[in-house]
Write a structure and sequence with these properties.
Elements (H helix, E strand, L loop, with lengths): L1 H42 L7 H16 L2 H7 L1 H18 L14 H20 L21
Helix pairs in contact: 1-2, 1-3, 1-5, 2-4, 3-4, 4-5
């Protein structure tokens, strides 16, 4: 009887751990849309924007990422690390630049690092299996169908 109780307790522990796994990954997927929106906002700054605009958008990306960071680290560790590195690289490329400086006059690394953040987000989203990166940006025009479609 004692063995049965111990075994039953082990099974219940595993079941609880499994539901915690599902809840945590579900939380990441519920919040990844906000991260997707903030990454798209960062990408939309463009050459007409300023370094300050990039820094503001980057701060929003970091805030959004903080909401899923634990889940991302647990379920997509390599992609989460790559995403964080891309943000660090962007931060380094804007460090020391004046906020009012236009992106078009800033070093070319800023735009390249913004692109890297977007690519890293897509890989993270794909690995988590949430599907946020597949959704078009708000107000975006869908691509035209290819010949034969």
């Amino acid at each position: 009887m004692k063995k049965l109780s111990v075994m039953l307790a082990g099974v219940l522990s595993l079941a609880a751990a499994g539901s915690a796994f599902a809840a945590t990954k579900a939380d990441a997927c519920n919040n990844i849309g906000e991260l997707d929106s903030s990454v798209k906002s960062l990408q939309s700054v463009g050459a007409q924007g300023t370094v300050g605009d990039i820094k503001k958008a980057e701060a929003q990306v970091k805030d959004s990422y903080d909401k899923i960071s634990d889940s991302a680290d647990q379920y997509a560790k390599a992609q989460a690390s790559a995403f964080k590195r891309s943000l660090d690289n962007l931060d380094k490329s804007t460090s020391g630049l004046k906020d009012e400086q236009p992106i078009s006059q800033a070093q070319s690394g800023v735009s390249a690092n913004v692109d890297q953040v977007g690519a890293a987000f897509q890989k993270l989203d794909s690995t988590l299996g949430c599907g946020a990166a597949a959704a078009p940006a708000p107000g975006a025009t869908p691509p035209a169908p290819m010949n034969g479609d």
